Structures are given as C-alpha cells and as structure tokens.
C-alpha cells in the first residue's frame, strides 16, 4: 500500500518536473517536438512502405491485364484483316478468271459452251485430271474440249449426270485420246497427232507422219475437228521447234501451250 502511494507521488512529481522544464525552457520543448515529429515521420514512412509496394504491384497487374486484353484484341483484328485480304485476293483471281473465260467464249466457235467449276482435284494426279460440277444433265458430252484462259487444256474423259472428269493434255496417257491437231501455215494446214508432254520444257509433243514439210516456228496450233472431237479452230499453242522423229517416220513438233495448265477454279467446255 505504501509502495503504491510512493509510485503515484513519484509519477506526479515527474510529470510536474517535465512540464516545468518544457514551460521554462522553450528551446527544449521545440527540440522534443521536432525530434518527436522526425520519429513519427520515420515510423509513418516505415509503415507506409508495404502498402505503397502492394498498391504499385496492384497497378502493375492491372496495367498488364489491360495490355494483354489490348494485345488479344489487336491479334484478333490482324487475323480478321488477313482473312479479308485472302478473300479479296481469291475474289480478284476468280473475277479475272471468269473475265478471261468470257473473252475466250466470245472469240471461239462451238454449238455448246458451258462454264464449269472445279470441285475435286487429287494431289497425286494434280497435273493430269480434275472433276467439275457439270455433267450430262447440263449438256456436257464426252467429245468436248476443256479450255482455260488462252486456249485448250484438256478433254472430257468420264461423264456422269452431275459431274465430269477432265483429262489434261499433259497426262502420260494422253496419246490414247488420238487427238489430232492442226498447224496453220501460210499456204497449207498440217495435221499432227498429240503424243505427249515434256514436263521439263513445258511443251506439247506432236508427231507429223509422212513426208517432212516446212513448219515455221511460231505457227499457230489449234484443234482440227477430226475424229471424236469435232470442234475445230480452238487455240492450243504455237510451234516452238521441229525435228526429225526418232523413228524417222515423220517430224516431232514441239508446241508451247497458249493457256495456263495450272487452272485455279473455272473452265470453259466447248463442243458440238
């Protein structure tokens, strides 16, 4: 009980002494206030550092999320632009192809003229055949020529009601079609049989049987109208060279195709 009273008296005296010192000595009071402020400032800064770091990281995460969303949006837009660009190129190519076929259609003769679209083309036989969406119900016959921009590229090989298989003139067995072509000279027409295609030079190989005749380089080669395929004067190509046949029975004539054999989508069928 006595000790408790002593501590109360001591505490009171301490407070009174400190208050008196602060009152009597203003410089001490100011120093204490300044030091206290410094301590509080340091303490406040120490306490605020973790919160500042957390707030900074939170803002960084928000910014990264925003940038990621913008990046995804930009990629989507770029992807759509690429798709639209691809569609535009395809449509421009198809438009040019159809315009070329229309010009060709107006410049050649034939009682039947039908535009067909390629619907199937096998990779293993890409350079030999393809299937179109027109058949016997559309007026197609197995004696029709097939043309792309420039001239003849093939013939109808197999006929169905709603589709047809087209054999290109570059096939290894094209000689089996017994296709006779006509070479126009200034004074005469020379007939030759299509016997093959040279993949290395990109030329048709024709065989002219009989006595050798003078055939000029650059002479126009067209369909003859002889045999199964009755339509004549459809452009095929131009003579690039002439030499004696290996069996000495005539001349081998090389012809540069007038049309592109790598058709994209549409072809023109012409026949009687």
UniProtKB/TrEMBL annotation:
Gene encoding the protein: mreC
Gene3D superfamilies: Rod shape-determining protein MreC, domain 1, Rod shape-determining protein MreC, domain 2
GO biological process: regulation of cell shape
Coiled coil stretches, renumbered: 81-108
Known role: Involved in formation and maintenance of cell shape.
Swiss-Prot/TrEMBL keywords: Cell shape, Coiled coil
UniProt name for this protein: Cell shape-determining protein MreC
Family under the similarity heading: Belongs to the MreC family.
Pfam families reported in the protein's UniProt record: MreC
Source species, domain of life: Bacteria
Family matches, as PANTHER family: CELL SHAPE-DETERMINING PROTEIN MREC
GO cellular component: plasma membrane
Domain Rod shape-determining protein MreC beta-barrel core, first and last residues per copy: 118-270
